[in-house]
Amino acid sequence: MNQDLPPTGRERVIGPDYVPAPETVLRPEVPAGTVRAFVLRSTDSRIYPGIRRIDTAVTRRRDAFGNRIAAEAQDQSVAEPYLRTVWVYVPPGHSPSRPLPFLLVQDGHAFLNLVPRVLDNLIADGRVPAMAAILIDSGGGDAQGSQRGLEYDTVSGVYSDFIETEVLPRVMAETGLTLSDDPDRRATMGVSSGAACAFTMAWFHPERYRRVLSYSGTFVNQQSPPDPHSPRGAWEYHATFIPQTDPKPLRVWLEVGEADLHADDPEETWHNWPLANRRMAAALAARSYRYRFTFSRGGRHADSRVMAATLPAALVWLWGDDPD
Q1: For residues 232 and 37, what is the distance between their CA atoms, to the nearest angstrom?
Q2: How far apart are CA 106 and CA 159, in angstroms?
Q3: Which of 120, 149, 253, 284 could form a disulfide with 291 if both were Cys (CB 3.0 to 4.6 A apart)?
Q4: Nearest Cα residue to 134 out of 108, 166, 110, 159
């Protein structure tokens, strides 16, 4: 692919033509799980009471790390409550008293028509363990100054704390499920900023999550407000954090598209998605992580064609136990 990809055998190139995997197709003979939904209100959250981005016509200057100059960003957002929906997939035939492995999915609405069907088929075929899937939406908006940006692009353990202390207890209360507390039986995934968020959850709390699935991960400089501990936001994962930190017990599946966001931007912008994800693969390889990296020729940002073609095999590898 290019010089940023080490020849480890853990990367592959796919496309540019994409066909949905057979596991994405409804099989009438396969028992179907159930999907239940409930709403979380920001007024009940002590961690995320809610903000909304303000878009202005002001030209945004940036500092050396690409962060907006504070004087121009001070009115970036205002307080505003939100509602978020949580969908919970329960596998067929599950006994509520038995602790279930689970997959946590950011931007849950984007996967609502894909993840439950794929899990039905994979579980029926014995290729993944019977598991729940928690498909949770963000609090809304996108990028700097938004509630979604605050949750997904912040490089810290706060979002993981939100899930652990406010979301999972509510899931169990609403469904009667018992969710596993074994980090090897918990996975987290997402697309774009939701994918970077999934990695952040595992990076800061590997005692909670050790399996990560990322599509078009936003491993770029999009954190707001800036943090001196991660001055280039999620770019720091491949630039400094992974290379300079003892390996963590994580298993990571990554994908990026050839035509993903800002593919032609120079490195010094710290905002090139294909480059950032190639660097993630290289950093993980150099530290002997268990990982897979897929480069999608012709693939776009958050490309639904790529997801339909790759998600079943990605989940099978993610839940496997082989050393690579």
Answers
A1: 36
A2: 11
A3: 284
A4: 108
What is the spatial distance between Cα 286 and Cα 243, in angstroms, rounded to a whole number? 8
CB 218 within 8 A of CB 153: yes
What is the pLDDT confidence band of residue 49, given thresholds at 50, 70 and 90? very high
What pLDDT digit, counting tens, does each position of 160-203 carry? 999 999 999 999 999 999 999 999 999 999 999 999 999 999 99
**What count of Cα atoms within 13 Å lies in the side-chain half-sphere of residue 282?**
15
What is the tens place of the pLDDT at every residue in 101-141?
Answer: 999 999 999 999 999 999 999 999 999 999 999 999 999 99
Within the chain, where are the H helices? 70-73, 115-124, 147-153, 158-162, 168-175, 193-204, 235-236, 242-244, 273-286, 304-318
Q: Provide the pairing of β-strand 211-215 with 186-191.
A: parallel
Please state the φ and ψ torsions of residue 179, each to the nearest 5 degrees.
-95, 140
Determine the distance from the C-alpha atom of residue 211 to the mean position of all C-alpha atoms in its chain, rounded to a whole number. 11
CATH of 11-50+83-318, one of 1.10.1040.50, 3.30.530.20, 3.40.50.300, 3.40.50.1820: 3.40.50.1820
